[in-house]
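Aim 2, interim progress. The first record below pairs a target sequence with its C-alpha cells.
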Amino acid sequence: MTYQPAVQFSCVECNAPKVVARKLCRRCYTRARTANRLAEYAILGPNDVFESRFDKTDGCWEWKGTRNQYGYGIFLLPGEKPVRAHRYSYQFYVGLIPDDKVIMHTCDNPPCVNPAHLRIGTKAENNADTAKKRRHNYGLQHWNGRLSDADVAVIRASDEPKPVLAKRYGVHYSHIWRIKAGQHRK
C-alpha cells in the first residue's frame, strides 16, 4: 500500500500537476505499466511528503503543514500515526532518538525542522533551558498565577510579616518567603 499525501506533486515525466502513483500522472503511469517499467519509478513515501512541507533556507526551515496548539509541526505517517515534525526531521536527517530523550530546538522556534537547529536532550535539560530563557508562563499568564509583577515588587518592598502578606495575596507563606529571598520571579 502506498502513502497517499494531502500535498499534490508534479509528474516526474511530463510535469503534470496531479500525481496518482509512483510520482507519475495517470497518463504516464498507464504508459509505464503497459511497457512494464513501473519498477523504474520510486514509490511516493512519507519522506517525499515531509520534504514538501517546508523550504530549505540558511536559517530555520519553517514547517508549512499542520501545527499543534504550541506551534510544533504535526506530521501524519501512514496508518494515521501522528508524529511531531521536528522529531521526524531529526530521525530522517541525523538518526534514531533514544526512548528516554527529547529533541530540543537551539533556535527556540517550535515550527523549525532544520536538523542543524535540533539536538538531543533530557526532559530536565529541556525544562531548565525553557526556564533559563523565560519561555514558561509566569505571573498572571500562568494558569494558576495569582501575583502580577507589581504585586511581587510590593511584596519585596514590604516590611509586613510574611503570613500577613500570604493571606492578603491568597498564596502560601513559603511562596512569599521565596519571593522575598529572590528565588522566584527574578
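The second target in this work package is listed in the same format:
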Amino acid sequence: MPDGGKCTIEVDVDDVAQVEISGDMGRIRTLSGQPSVWRRFECSGPLPPNMADFRFSGVDGRGRQTLVSDPRNNRGVAVIRIEDPKAGREGYTFDIEWRGAAPVSGDVGRRDGDRRDGDRRDGDRWEASKAIASCQDAVRDRAGRDYGIRDLDFRRTVFDDNPGRSDWVVGSFVGRGRGRDRDEYSFSCAVDFDERRLRDVQIQRR
C-alpha cells in the first residue's frame, strides 16, 4: 500500500481566505472579501493524521499562498492562507504532498455529521466537488428551460449547514429573466451521494 499521497486544490478568492484540509475533508473560510468558492478538490487519498514528510507548493495565482499550519504539528490538519492583492476574484491552485504516512482507520469519503460551509469529502461516494458542479449545471439548465433566466452569475454555492440538511447544496445567483432586469435568485439541490445524482432542484426569486 502506498505510504504517500497528493492533493491538488483550486479555489477562487476575492481578498483573503483560509483553506483547511483534514483527512478526507476540506473547508474554506472567507476572512475578507466576497465569499470564496471551490473549483477543484482532488486527492489520491485522505491526509493522514501523522506523516514523516509533508510538502506544500503554490501552483497558480497572482497573490500569496502560505502554509500557516503544517499538519505534522497541527494534529494532521493542513492550513493554507491565500491573500489576493487586487480587486475581483482570482483562481488559486496549490498542491500538498506527504510521505511516510501511517495507516488511516475508518472509511474514505465518510459523510457522518453535519457539513459546515465549504466542506468537501472525496472517496468511493460522489465527490462533493462534482455534486456542487452538477447542482450548478442543473440550476442553469432549469433556470433557462422553465423560467427563461439567462446569463447566470453564481454568487454562492455551499452545503447546507442546518441540522438534517447535510445532503443539500444551496446558494444564490444573479440572472436575467424574461422581460426583467437582472434579479437575484436562491436555489437548492437535494444530493444522493450513493447514487451519484440529484434528487431535486428548486429555484426561487428573492
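Residues 128-205 form a domain with the Nuclear Transport Factor 2; Chain: A, fold (CATH 3.10.450). This observation will shape the mutagenesis plan for the next reporting period.
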